[in-house]
Amino acid sequence: MKKKVFSVMATFALATCIAAGSAEAATEQYTVKTGDSLWKIASLHNLTVDELKKMNNLTSDSIKASQKLIVKKPLIQNENQNTATIKDIHKGLTVAKETSSTSFLQSTEAKDKPLLPTLSKAAQEIQIASVEVALPLLDTPYAWAGVTPEGFDCSGFIYYVFTNAGLQLPRMDTISMFTNSHAVDEPVPGDLVFFENTYREGISHAGIYIGDGKFIHAGTKKVEISTIDSVYWKDKFVGFTRFTQLQTVK
Predict the structure, then answer these.
(1) Is residue 90 annotated as a catalytic residue, yes or no?
(2) N or C: lower Cβ tally within 10 Å for the chain?
(3) For residue 113, pLDDT beyond 50
(4) Catalytic residue list contains 45
């Protein structure tokens, strides 16, 4: 039976705004250190990678040691509102942020289905980070059993993304990832999406949901973004899941 694909909101934790008392604070800068990445610097200053790049007019993800980056976060407006729309993450994919620190989208569709436990802020940040780690990997070539930016298969891509986003995972194949995750009826970016009967019978392919009915995955030729409701994927769609390991992140 075909399942309806929900367009949902990503849960973002709002950072506390600290008033700056000097002109220097208003243009706070960060000096890049060896081993830094845009995601690491953005997370440290409660920014998204996209915000950090726009603030510094960066056109690529490349940075170098001793480079100075502006990291002053724009003021957040209407903090008491339940949700606030934020800018596109990539290629017009819009997500929204939810200001409640206690409500993470849960399934309430059937009374006999247990609700997923609310994820910690750290676990939510890992899911957000997974999308930000995944998007720059677009067009990475496909490689059977690949787990590096030199090449990925579908499970290797998910393993690389989540371990670099901060989740400790063993290397698993697609079926093991399916059995080590819990079904969700209302997915958010950073959840998994599974398909069956692609190159073999049963669970055979997986990707990372990025919102708006789309997912990023290692396809047959390269890492790409696809639509779940497309002609090829909709009949093979199994459902959304969330890594069980996220529930233990504090």
Answers:
(1) no
(2) N
(3) no
(4) no
